Amino acid sequence: MGNTTSLEYQPYRLQKALEYNIPVPRYTSYPTVPAWEVDKFVSCKWLGGLAKEQSFQLYIHLPYCEQLCTYCGCNKRITVNHNVEEPYIDLLLKEWELWKGQLPPNFSISEIHLGGGTPTFFSAEMLEKLITGITKDLANPPIANSVELHPAVTSVAQVNTLYSLGFRRFSIGVQCSDSQVLKAINRHQNPHQITNIMDAIRLLPGTSINWDLVYGLPKQTLASITETLNWVAAHKPDRIAWYGYAHVPWKSKAQRGYSEADLPTAEERFFMQEYGAIELNKLGYTTIGIDHFALPTDALAIAAEIGKLHRNFMGYSTSTSSAIIGLGCSAISENKAGFVQNEVTVEGYAESINAGHFAFIKGHLNTPTDTLIAKHISELMCNGVTTFTFSEQNEVWFWPFKEHTKKLESEGMLVWKDGHNRLIIPEAARHFSRLVALQLDLRYWEGEKKVNQFSKAV
Fold it and tell me: 302 exposed, middle or buried (CB, 10 Å; 0-12, 13-18, 19+)?
């Protein structure tokens, strides 16, 4: 069984999935946040790295939600008090002024992403105040922005306002169509709300719609997945994010409302993922990386086809901007120098911004080795292949990494080509990409293996 073709057989894939069902980083960045050397972080050195960038992506964290979705591990604040909207928008605009004082002359913003929380917790008027406040001094405001939508609280007015502000990619949190599953995770939405939002978006030219779907949720079955995929067939969104639910109740207290007994078994979870991927391919979707699918005409599929796919904290992306500015509580910013994260709580964030200084709570400065490894992990996660130069093969981390890969190579999860130059993840093994990346994660192997920080590998 120890060869590449073995993974083409489902029983063998199941065997390996159960064997390697361990907590592993999702590798939207490297180093991963638990491995940051926060004691060595110097904010002025990180800020100095901004001068070497010209184009930036802008991520804005909007943490408020009216109701708690118990599966969610994101940073959020639950309230029905909409009086919090304008004060928070004002804080974001104050923070943006701080950032503008640090950015190089003639900088540009390639795209804006609104995440949360629930961005459409905020009214159309408040969203307009935020985006116009951000873009008012930009010579070329971005016109390919993206936003996350909760269908139960999103109005057509909000969609139209966002479109007028340059938003073209709309990601709808569908999660699952099964009402029993939605009840278990305390997510109150219905098919009419989803259809209503879809119809409104499709009236607007040049838009792309993504559906976030989750497998492995409490009370979820293969029948639930089948019903959800029937919805996909009926609506045909441009993209699908097909995420595995991460059960981390020690980190997300809301997940303590149900137990392991309510969740699908590891074997059931494997078949959910496999079945979903197969059916999405049958519906005409191209597989993107480890957990995304897109119609062949979508920009994400085109980028993957020509090897121009990128990966960052926001997932898979077509953006060529290497730097990210994060606004809002808990937001993470990135440049070539490393990473920095804002205060997690709204109160801590507000205190810093109102005092006139950045709300940084921790960060990491990249070493040259970090930068090299990050490049290879990104290429593996995006394209399933990476090439090591001769000089990289003489780095102290390379041969221990090569040694780590031997077992996975014997099991068909990776292939070395051209001696030690090229590492390839075969198509049948793409779902195991995180395991392959783990072998290259020098900070994981050298430091504490903080397994409870991550979701399961498969």
Answer: middle
Q: Is 235 exposed, middle or buried (0-12, 13-18, 19+ CB in 10 A)?
A: middle
Largest CA distance in the chain: 62
Residue 193 is given by DSSP the state: H
pTM over 0.90: yes
**Structural domain contains residue 298:** yes
What pLDDT is stored for residue 418 in this prediction? 86
The DSSP output letter for 399 is H
The set of residues, in sequence order, having a beta carbon less than 8 Å from that of 398 and lying 6+ positions away, is 388, 392, 420
Q: How far is C-alpha 116 from the geometric centre of its chain's CA atoms?
A: 12
Q: Please tell me whether residues 391 and 312 are part of one structural domain.
A: no
Return the bridge partners of 175, or none.
213
pLDDT reading at 332 higher than 70: yes
CATH code of the domain containing 456:
1.10.10.920
Residue 109 lies in a domain: yes
* 166 and 64 together in one domain: yes
Q: How confident is the model at residue 457 (pLDDT cuts 50, 70, 90)?
A: low
Beta strands in 137-248 (DSSP E): 145-149, 167-175, 208-215, 239-244
**Inside any domain, residue 89:** yes
Q: Does residue 340 lie in a domain region?
A: no
The model's confidence at residue 22, banded by pLDDT at 50, 70 and 90, is: confident
Q: Stretch 317-331: mean pLDDT, rounded?
A: 91
Residue where one domain finishes, among candidates 272, 298, 326: 326
Q: What share of the chain is helix, strand, coil (3-state, %, to 5)?
A: 45, 20, 35
Residue ranges making up the domain that contains 442: 1-31+367-458
Residues 227, 107 share a domain: yes
CB 56 within 8 A of CB 324: yes
